[in-house]
Specification:
The protein has 8 helices and no strands. By secondary structure, it is mainly α.
Length: 193
């Protein structure tokens, strides 16, 4: 699926509105927003496919900056070019900016409020559940081709991150290099046959 959707006002409004609403209603960082973007743009709108989402997440995770913003920029550009990119970035950045401005102005009142502390505790549980959902979905997509290399890389990356506390950027770079070398070797092998 390599086509761009024409940047009609309806498409551009949908891009901005979707990113704005998702960014307004999700707490917990980039991986949480990823599942919401995937549900909307892959499952509901069918503007991008699941394989593209995996590539976008990998690029966004390994690029400098906030993962949610990076991903929304890639999605916006992929769907409607530069204008789509600008609108999705604005839609993703505006809600936290507005919320943090309000919280900053009222920090002293929020800081000691018992009810807000309980709400945030509840949000933590919800965020953990969404992150588990994202992890399971991404693992399924990595393993769906049943390639031994994918199994080995997933296991190795998991052990490196969880047990040995290896920096996530290093893991992504190493996995990218191994995946690229593996794909190149496989392509050369197919060409000789």
């Amino acid at each position: 699926m390599n086509r761009k959707i024409p940047p009609t006002p309806a498409v551009l409004w949908t891009l901005f509105k979707t990113c704005f609403l998702i960014s307004s209603c999700t707490f917990g960082g980039g991986m949480v927003i990823m599942s919401m973007l995937q549900k909307k743009f892959v499952e509901e709108l069918h503007w991008i496919d699941q394989e593209e989402v995996m590539d976008m997440v990998a690029i966004a995770q390994s690029s400098p900056g906030v993962m949610a913003v990076n991903t929304s920029i890639i999605i916006g550009y992929r769907i409607s070019g530069i204008l789509g990119m600008v609108l999705t970035a604005l839609g993703t950045v505006l809600p936290p900016m507005i919320i943090l401005t309000i919280i900053s102005a009222c920090y002293v009142q929020f800081c000691g409020n018992h009810i807000i502390a309980l709400v945030l505790k509840g949000m933590q549980a919800g965020v953990a559940a969404v992150m588990v959902n994202v992890t399971v979905t991404m693992c399924r997509n990595v393993l769906k081709d049943r390639e031994p290399m994918a199994f080995a890389m997933l296991a190795g990356a998991s052990v490196a991150a969880v047990i040995f506390q290896v920096d996530i950027i290093m893991i992504i770079l190493v996995c990218g290099i191994i995946g690229g070398c593996s794909k190149t070797a496989k392509t050369k092998e197919d060409d000789t046959i």
